[in-house]
Amino acid sequence: MFFDDTDYLADDFVESNKALIKDGVIYTDAEQLKVVVNTNMTVAIMSGRGWVQGHSFSNGSTASLTLTNADGTLNRIDRIVVRLDYANHQISLIVLTGTTA
Predict the structure, then answer these.
(1) How many CB atoms lie within 10 A of CB 57?
(2) Which of 27, 35, 38, 92 lies at 20 to 30 Å from 78 by C-alpha?
(3) How far from chain centre, in Å, is Cα 30?
(4) Share of the chain above pLDDT 70, in %
């Protein structure tokens, strides 16, 4: 696919990466992108690296995300995800707030 004296687009590299590398965390130890619950409705996401759809991402330092208040009696499951935003050319950590049930 890649030859000297040829121009390539980012999509060319992404497609090549997708064929070789699965989505997920690059595991070097158990702390990579570990989510730690804090007491003030926030979670800390430890540093780490990974891949999403052929794009690499890196969280160089501990990130903090805020959770919304849950219902007083019903349960809810929130998820911390790595989101690839093609429109803005960025990868970010976000909270997907679950539905109370």
Answers:
(1) 19
(2) 27
(3) 16
(4) 99
